[in-house]
Write a structure and sequence with these properties.
Helix content: under 10%
Low-confidence stretches: none
Mean pLDDT: 94
Number of helices: 0
Distance between the termini: 40 Å
Oligomer: single chain
């Protein structure tokens, strides 16, 4: 069992920055993949960034502006968001996959609002 808790969302102006944090507890040692996805009102959930032991991957819409990193083993993953745009406004969800048994856990989400 893994529990994910996001924090760091809020309201920021166009061009500003925010840093989201995803803290994992429970069987976090079993996590091999952590990602951030977002969902804006009326839109489908979109995968934004992923981090694994093999590296990182980003959606084209955030490349060069967002950076995902792991700060200590598998316990905390950060999403640094720079040069934010109004279209980045969404609820951001952290999710993590474990291998034994295969399962994906989701956090409760944190709201990010970028004003123009």
């Amino acid at each position: 069992q893994v529990k994910l808790v996001e924090s760091g969302g809020g309201v920021v102006q166009h061009g500003g920055s925010l840093r989201l944090s995803c803290a994992a507890s429970g069987s976090s040692f079993n996590i091999y993949y952590t990602g951030w996805s977002r969902q804006a009102p009326g839109k489908q959930r979109e995968l934004v960034a992923v981090i694994t032991s093999g590296g990182t991957n980003y959606a084209d819409s955030v490349k060069g502006r967002f950076m995902i990193s792991r700060v200590n083993a598998n316990n905390t993953v950060l999403l640094q968001m720079n040069n934010l745009k109004p279209e980045d406004t969404a609820v951001y969800y952290c999710h993590a996959r474990i291998s034994t048994p295969p399962y994906r856990y989701w956090g409760q989400g944190t709201q990010v609002t970028v004003s123009s």
